[in-house]
Amino acid sequence: MEFQSPRHLARRTLKNSSKLKSEYPHSLQLYSVPPSETIGLQELEDWAVERLKVLRAVERVNLSKNTKFSDDWKNALKNDLQKQNIDSWYKLSSSIKDEKMDEIICKTRQKDHVSHFLLRLAYCRTEESRRWFISQETDLFRFRFSMENSEDIRIFMKENKMNFQPIPDEEKKKILTKLIHAMSFNASKIDTVEYYKVPFTEALDLVRHRKVYLQAGYAYVPNDELVSIITAMFRSHLSLAMALTIRSLPELEDDHRIRRLLNDFDKRYTGQDFNALQNKFSGAAITPEMLDGLSKQSYPLCMRHLHETLRSTHHLKHGGRIQYGLFIKGIGLSLENSLKFWREEFSKNMDIDKFEKQYAYTIRHNYGKEGKRVNYSPHSCIKIINASVGPGENHGCPFKHFDAALLRQKMTTNRVPQPAIQEIVDLVTRHHYQIACQRYFEATHNTEVDSGIQHPNQYFIESQKILNGEVKEKPKGAHKVQTIRATLPAKVEKPDPTDENHEILSESVLAAIDMDDDFT
């Protein structure tokens, strides 16, 4: 894969749709061959950011109330992608017959291919990043696989040399009774179901859940369950590829362009820009006098803590001033009112001349009126969570940086119900900080947030919508937030000999369980 700087983009030759179609004949890919196109740096970055949005959407839906890969789960993911205007990332099926869509599909397949390899480079650096990437990519693959018809699946398997052949009718009739006992669907449909004879070591997940019939070292897999086997192959292939990628990273980072592109890419914020100096919800401009009331009604815990600390101590250290100053700028506090707010509070501990000399510059700088004159955006949840917080500092994320006792105290003071406090603390223990913030929102607003909390200013806006009657409340506690760790394939556990059902397992199944250690 070659990279071009923007000044060289005019010399680039774009591939037409027919050539792209020949290179990307199928919507599903195992990403075995790296891309070789010449691509502009800006386009490359745009594609990578789009894919990151897709993977984060998969993660959000995984943490919702919906059962994984159910129809509700799939619809939730589609809706999330549609809201972000990136629904073309799942409309890649070969069965779509539309000339206008055909060109879009081919281009998106190319984006899918190229961006996957770029994110491999960004997420191969740590074990935690690799696990997250592999988990989301595997779920995205399975989601796309579920949208393919039988013919497209056969073509995909043939192209990738997955030699799974349906068993002949004669063999099927011989073991028909045993297949009926093993099947998880209506027995009346067995005549219309194709079975594939697969080495049992490639169907360990199905063996673990007793969904297949085993005989002579082979698993007889119904066509609806092939997704489990092929997804496991995809995960195994990607795990190996990530291990190889980390070895190549030092050489690739010799190129300063790719190094700049990949630097902290996994921490990049991909949500809405909240750098707007307006308040659409109160009907009036935000003034310093309104902040006390708003902090109790609509502030996330991180910003409420900063506001209360400022009010009680009349001072915040640099990190707190930046985090809170950009937040109140984002909710609509003008530069003039911001200077007034900080000046009135700080002047309780110092004279006004000292404030003007030491602190006013930073406030004007946040609004793009000093220094490089950059109009800075409010900090996202990701940036706040990853902030370094030293002794005596109050910025950062309370769900990450507070100890459990202080966090419980803060939530009790803010009248969060005790059951919700316990649930939030449990989420924090498992490092689900943004989900904990979402649960805090739900507990304090008596509603649910389907899209999750990605930004403090998003929290403020969603709160204002509810308080102003723009969004109907959903009964609190109607659903629990499910949390799912991003992990590599789970190991199969051997059954407890004291379990009365353990004798149902055959020796072949036990052999498969023993070999599961090698699989992971």
Short description:
The chain is mainly α and 520 residues long. The protein has helices spanning 17-23, 41-62, 71-83, 99-123, 127-146, 150-159, 169-174, 176-182, 204-208, 226-252, 256-262, 291-297, 301-313, 318-330, 335-346, 352-358, 360-366, 381-385, 398-401, 404-413, 418-429, 433-445, 456-467, 507-519, and strands spanning 2-4, 38-40, 195-199, 213-215, 218-222. The chain folds into 3 domains: 7-148, Transcription Elongation Factor S-II, Chain A (Up-down Bundle), CATH 1.20.930; 158-226, no CATH class; 288-468, no CATH class.
Question: How big is the Rg?
Answer: 27 Å
The secondary-structure element order is EHEHHHHHHHEHEEHHHHHHHHHHHHHHH
Let me know the average pLDDT: 82
How many independent structural domains?
A: 3
Task: Give the spatial strand order of the biggest sheet.
Answer: 3-5-4
Choose one word for the global shape.
elongated
Biggest sheet details: 3 strands, antiparallel
Total E-strand runs: 5
Structural category is mainly alpha
- Give the % helix: 40-55%
* Percent range for β-strand residues: under 5%
For the record, give the distance between the C-alpha atoms at the N and C termini, rounded to a whole number: 31 Å
Describe the structure.
With 520 residues, the protein is mainly α. It has 3 domains: 7-148, Transcription Elongation Factor S-II, Chain A; 158-226, no CATH class; 288-468, no CATH class. Helix content is 53%, strand content 4%. It is built from 24 helices and 5 strands. The strands form 2 sheets. A 3-stranded antiparallel sheet has the order 3-5-4. A two-stranded parallel ribbon has the order 1-2. Helix 2 (41-62) packs antiparallel against helix 3 and helix 20 runs antiparallel to helix 21. The chain is elongated. The two termini are 31 Å apart. Residues 2-14 and 477-520 have low confidence and may be disordered. Its cofactor is [4Fe-4S] cluster. This is DNA primase large subunit. Belongs to the eukaryotic-type primase large subunit family. Keywords: 4Fe-4S, DNA replication, DNA-binding, Iron, Iron-sulfur, Metal-binding, Primosome. DNA primase is the polymerase that synthesizes small RNA primers for the Okazaki fragments made during discontinuous DNA replication.
